[in-house]
Amino acid sequence: MAARLQMLKTKAAELSRLVAKKGCEHYKETLEKNKKYVVDPPTVEKCQELSKQLFYTRMASLPGRYDAFWKELDGVKNVWKNRHELKVEDAGIAALFGIELYAWFCVGEIMGRGFTLTGYYP
Known about the structure:
This protein is mostly helical.
C-alpha cells in the first residue's frame, strides 16, 4: 500500500510539473496571439473604463434586440395563423425543438438538485 501511495505521489508531482510547464507556455502563447486586445498600461482605471464601455455598448444594442424580438414574434404569430398550411417536416422540427428544450430544463433541474431524481439529500 505504501509503495502504491509513493508511486501515486510521484506521478502527481510529474503531472504537476508538466501542467505548470505547458500551462505557462499556453498562457504566453495566448497572450502573444491576442496582443492586439491588450491595453497598455493595464491599470485598474483602464479596466473600469473598459467595463463601462462594454456595459453601455450592450445597453445601446438593446433597441435593436428589442426590434428583432418583435419581428421574430410576428413571424411566429404568422406561422401560427397559417398553421393549416404547415408541412409535416416543419411541425416535426418544431416538436423536436420543444422536446429538446424541455429535456435541457429537466437535466438542469436534476443537476441543480445534485443529480438526484427526488430532490432528497441524504
